[in-house]
Each structure stands twice: as C-alpha cells, then as structure tokens.
Write a structure and sequence with these properties.
Elements lengths: L1 H19 L11 H8 L5 H4 L66 H4 L21 H13 L6 H8 L3 H7 L4 H16 L3 H18 L4
Helix pairs in contact: 6-7
Pfam families: MRP-L20 (PF12824)
InterPro entries: Ribosomal_mL58
GO molecular function: structural constituent of ribosome
Amino acid sequence: MEARALARPAASFLANLSAHGTTVTRRSHQTFSRTKRALNIAPHPAFTTSPAGNSNTIIFNPPAAEPSVHHTPQKFLPKSDPRRKHADLAALFASPYAAPGTVPSSSSTTTTTTTADADAGLPPALDFPSRNNPRYHLTREDVAEIRRLRAEDPARWSVNRLAKKFDCSEVFITICTPAPRDHKENLERKLEAVKRRWGAIRTKARVERAKRKDMLFRGEL
C-alpha cells in the first residue's frame, strides 16, 4: 500500500514530462562574469590617442548654452529689426532705462542720464537700514549719553533698546560702548543655568549646530 502511494507522484511527474516535452536546464549567457566581460567595451580611440603623438590632450566639449541676441548673424535678422542699423550691438543695450522700441544713438554712451530719468522705471526704494548706506547723524554728545546709560543700568538699557532710542545699528552700540564685565558675567551665569536644563537631544543638537557653523566658515560645506 505504501509503495503504491509513493509511485503515484512519480508516475504523474513522468506523464507530465512526456506530455509537455523534456525540460533540459542549460547555462545561458546571463551570468555575472560573462555579462561583465561583454559590457567591458574599450574606449573610443579619440580618447586614448593624440593626433600629434602626445598623450597629454585636452578635449574641449563645452555644454550647450542659451543663444544670445549678440550672436545672431545679420543674415537671420528681419529687415525691420533695429539691430541691422547698428554695427556695434553693445551700443543698443548700453542704456537699461531706454523706452522699449526706441533705438539709442551712438552718442548715448557718452551722455549721462539724470537721476529722475534713471529712477522713473525702478520700483520704490525700501526703507530698510543697510550697511551700504551709512548715516552719520550721531554727535559726540549722543555717544557720551549712550555710554552713560549703558554704564548706569546695562540690564535696562540693552543694545537693542539703545539702538532704537538713538536710531542706529546694534553694531554701532557694541562698538561705542561695550557691556561692563559684571554684566557679562551675569549673562554667562544665566546662560549656564539655561544649559543645565537642556536634555540630551537638545545638547547634541546645539553641539552639531556649532560644528556645522565652524565647517561653514572653513568652506567645508
């Protein structure tokens, strides 16, 4: 009984082989070593040999760039294009404030544009303090008053409050009157008390931030 039960699967397997043909396992080309050898194509001779016989060759292959109006040949310009009337194409774009459709003359590069005409097509100026436009409106009496207030009560007259009072930058306040030593030590003690309340995640984040800042200043990022 047991032999008959074992013979039935074998008989069915042989019947399937005879019905669908004999299956033969063959080793094809799709193996790692053969595929690697097939794809190992030698470089083009232009990259390995030099026409002058020298092995040191510079291959100049610049990327495609956007075409410029300065490079348009005269042949492809329409007859109504104002660029046909100018031999020097740079003179056409010399004045950025010229009205659209007008052609500046050759003497436009020598004439100066007035401030009103130059600012006519520009957006309104931002009312924002900048280092490029410094102001020298503080006098010696103002500087003496800043130093007196800072030395009298540095906690009340902070750098930000003095800058707002005298309408100047915070950098000027720090240069004009540094904070007293005891005030700096008090701020350091407060900072250390705050740091002691930090957890492991915040402490690690602060350390990583300081590292990234140093790497940024060294040009490593």
